[in-house]
């Protein structure tokens, strides 16, 4: 049977005729990562002498995707080298339906992998080794001379004739025409060069030629010994590490002759610019008298090592007809994955004993690289062979410097764009591996990866921690804020794959690099002049700064984690391998639905610049031909957004650390200036807060120090008006100032007046970064003209108002919106074009294209206004008829509490959850199948019933007191209700980041909102029928639906909120009629909607609280109303929380160390409350004692008669395993509290 690599779901083409009836597929030859290969009979050839070909069948991938990119390379590059006798001949390719077929020469002998591991044809056969190896060199030289670099040289891609005398190089799917490449991780991990594996400093590309040479070294070791030299050419691979300490290691432990070992050492030279060239390699191989030491060294050790799978699936057995020969030699081991056929794998030599001096200090090199057990598992357990039983007994290598033998510069020239390393590895390794007296010493370096020897400026942390966020982009004539995520959420998927152990650091880095480049290119294509860099993040941009500044809380230090895993532990906690640490606190980013990770600082915090991501991403973009403006969060905002760490001195304020932080910013900014960066964007969003007025001295002192060493500073504000703060901002030594004219258009006059006498350039945020509506060009141009009249065109920049983090990526991926609806909207990519058009008009560059864009925009705005006139009179009349009596319950809480106690019969310290339970893969698949028509509504409903039955059963087994139905039918807590209400439209791919890897698709309110019928009654009443315990109905509150949707721009938020409240009021009343006597109306977003300026608070809080009360006040006393609130600072709005008059409120509290209890202690609270006892945003399971301790702390402030015990938030994003364990501990803690605090 043919060996198989990982293959996606593809049909079986066996027996089919393709190519217009020309080719009949009669035999499967192999399957690989990207398709299947069949033997094909050419029916147009003579019947008595049929011609046969190998035909590769592949799906036609979506243009622009990575798979489509590699497929295109194969179809383009292979024909260029088709005529060489040692390269599989390409005949043609054609498309039929959804498939592309590549017709190639049929090679009948097999592949080199089988020749080595199954037939052992090279054993003691010097002549054959030389003959075949020289043919591979000839094939590669031919490719290189024609500008094709293979990058996937491995035995599976080298085929041979039936007599094994002629080889054929195959599979050009990873080939490139770039002599210098920045695509890392190409090929199979065993054969990759170190520079190809490493995500080095982006501008330092690697030589594609020399990575092929490295692969040839592994091939030579394969042919001589039947083994791979190592799994990965990285410092954390012990075999490779042994080679670094003794470059005769392979010659000592494998049956390689002295002469062959000399050649191998020249190939495995770390510096690619000193590595042997193909021409030199060919000459030296010709001179080798023998490749083998003795016959006895071919005997296998008794305990073979299992090995990890290659990073990239191998395309095993393609284009061959031979069947594998049953192995009789112990050099072949078999690796078995679930559901896959076993296949022989070349394995490395036994892992040598680690040189003892590597363990002598805690600052050794291996401490800075990922641990082996942190790499994604491939399902096989590792073991170490007993070398004493093997004829290939491993010798502990002698320790000496790895001085490369090869000193002749290979065929990499100036045209290859390969930059000279800052230090050659031989010299540098000699310094770190040998003391001046020649004795070995511990490796101690600042930077983690082996390749950092070549580039001391780049730390492993920068290798690992990539950045994906967007903050404001200021452009010379145009402005745009980058959006570092695609509509398909590749970053989210890659990060979660890394967490799940399904992706390596290198693979994650490659996705990040591809996403950054694609985003920069997309912005550039819209006509934007200056593009931001440095804001890309894998989790959160504030967390990025904390990691870069070494502001890492003590609990994450000394855990033996790589910097990347420390980073993620700070964001989401970690509970594995003896590590159990909670995450840092999260808060809402000003008045948005985005969450940031709060820095934890104390007087002991010692800042240092671990890495300069702004610099590195600037260089990365520059290498791609794109000039960018680096973006950093300003020092004052960073400190004000921070919190005092647990254990900090009483009265400590993070802003007091400003003198310690400024030198770090100076180091960062001066490096940018040295690199030639013209201007830098420094975000200081807290300048729009009232509290910033008290920070004038801090701002003045900070920027007086930063300005002299920095590129020109563009100070950025957003989300609200500067107000009087502009008076001191105008005195700062800055080049430019950005203001938000979407949220605060009236501030333009005051800001222009304040800076008019200065030389400050003004950036106008006239294109909204917070909504999805098309910009009214006429209004935006008018604002621009007003600024130009006062300041002059040379001092005005057009920009988005704020970060486009808060908007979806592009309308291009939306196919279900009507043409009319689509014409109303503008997503991030479209907003970039809007900025460019407005800037062009204001600069006088109004060509035919710009004129057409202006006319199209005028028509779109007019059409939307016409649509807005079609209001729902019934809804408008209901809003106008709201009375004060509709906002109040019939009796006060004290009366209601007694009625509810009798009706619900709850114990002391009642337990409940916040609503949702895990949304499993099966639930998501069922919902998708319903949408595709693969399930009928009846089948889907039966599925949902079973899910609800299971959720109710589990809750009863655990012992919860108030149950929920688990919400399996709901996709999102806002979208679900929007789909059941009139007035909303929905998108397919309009994803927006909420926190970390969590993304949401906010619905869009386009018209008056009303409820056509009951929304949740069916499933809540069904769930209640399954249990005698109270079932809690679950609704999302009116303010949260509004804040987590894209609201209308033509109607006030107050009116929209009250329309939603009336719809929910009807639902609450219907739920009570259906027998549901506990109803939760979630308002997690009520605090985030609070205006940033205190002067605007009262008006907002009045209508926000009234909306909640309008939704919940139409019920009897015995119905218990609940509400839930997200991470927030509640001190300032606590009176409004009390005015909601909910019977029970639950609040996310665990991440903030229960500090909000101080607020309750200060104000007092007479209704029932459930501060969350554990954080659900982390997979970490809290211990029973941990929850008991939190309950005990709560009871220092709260009355036992008022306390509910519940998690922080809904459990939708968690898995069942941790959910059951956590809730079990929660219930046990509540039982303990009942016994301990008996009345």
UniProtKB/TrEMBL annotation:
<feature type="domain" description="Protein kinase">
    <location>
        <begin position="23"/>
        <end position="292"/>
    </location>
</feature>
<dbReference type="Pfam" id="PF08267">
    <property type="entry name" value="Meth_synt_1"/>
</dbReference>
<dbReference type="GO" id="GO:0005524">
    <property type="term" value="F:ATP binding"/>
</dbReference>
<comment type="function">
    <text>Catalyzes the transfer of a methyl group from 5-methyltetrahydrofolate to homocysteine resulting in methionine formation.</text>
</comment>
<feature type="binding site">
    <location>
        <position position="56"/>
    </location>
    <ligand>
        <name>ATP</name>
    </ligand>
</feature>
<dbReference type="InterPro" id="IPR002629">
    <property type="entry name" value="Met_Synth_C/arc"/>
</dbReference>
<keyword id="KW-0486">Methionine biosynthesis</keyword>
<dbReference type="Pfam" id="PF00069">
    <property type="entry name" value="Pkinase"/>
</dbReference>
<comment type="similarity">
    <text>Belongs to the vitamin-B12 independent methionine synthase family.</text>
</comment>
<feature type="region of interest" description="Disordered">
    <location>
        <begin position="297"/>
        <end position="396"/>
    </location>
</feature>
<protein>
    <recommendedName>
        <fullName>5-methyltetrahydropteroyltriglutamate--homocysteine S-methyltransferase</fullName>
        <ecNumber>2.1.1.14</ecNumber>
    </recommendedName>
</protein>
<dbReference type="InterPro" id="IPR017441">
    <property type="entry name" value="Protein_kinase_ATP_BS"/>
</dbReference>
<dbReference type="GO" id="GO:0008270">
    <property type="term" value="F:zinc ion binding"/>
</dbReference>
<dbReference type="InterPro" id="IPR006276">
    <property type="entry name" value="Cobalamin-indep_Met_synthase"/>
</dbReference>
<keyword id="KW-0028">Amino-acid biosynthesis</keyword>
<dbReference type="GO" id="GO:0003871">
    <property type="term" value="F:5-methyltetrahydropteroyltriglutamate-homocysteine S-methyltransferase activity"/>
</dbReference>
<keyword id="KW-0479">Metal-binding</keyword>
<feature type="compositionally biased region" description="Polar residues">
    <location>
        <begin position="311"/>
        <end position="322"/>
    </location>
</feature>
<dbReference type="InterPro" id="IPR013215">
    <property type="entry name" value="Cbl-indep_Met_Synth_N"/>
</dbReference>
<keyword id="KW-0067">ATP-binding</keyword>
<dbReference type="InterPro" id="IPR000719">
    <property type="entry name" value="Prot_kinase_dom"/>
</dbReference>
<dbReference type="GO" id="GO:0009086">
    <property type="term" value="P:methionine biosynthetic process"/>
</dbReference>
<keyword id="KW-0862">Zinc</keyword>
<keyword id="KW-0489">Methyltransferase</keyword>
<keyword id="KW-0808">Transferase</keyword>
<dbReference type="InterPro" id="IPR038071">
    <property type="entry name" value="UROD/MetE-like_sf"/>
</dbReference>
<keyword id="KW-0547">Nucleotide-binding</keyword>
<dbReference type="GO" id="GO:0032259">
    <property type="term" value="P:methylation"/>
</dbReference>
<dbReference type="InterPro" id="IPR011009">
    <property type="entry name" value="Kinase-like_dom_sf"/>
</dbReference>
<feature type="compositionally biased region" description="Basic and acidic residues">
    <location>
        <begin position="364"/>
        <end position="374"/>
    </location>
</feature>
<comment type="pathway">
    <text>Amino-acid biosynthesis; L-methionine biosynthesis via de novo pathway; L-methionine from L-homocysteine (MetE route): step 1/1.</text>
</comment>
<feature type="compositionally biased region" description="Low complexity">
    <location>
        <begin position="381"/>
        <end position="395"/>
    </location>
</feature>
<dbReference type="Pfam" id="PF01717">
    <property type="entry name" value="Meth_synt_2"/>
</dbReference>
<dbReference type="GO" id="GO:0004672">
    <property type="term" value="F:protein kinase activity"/>
</dbReference>
<dbReference type="InterPro" id="IPR008271">
    <property type="entry name" value="Ser/Thr_kinase_AS"/>
</dbReference>
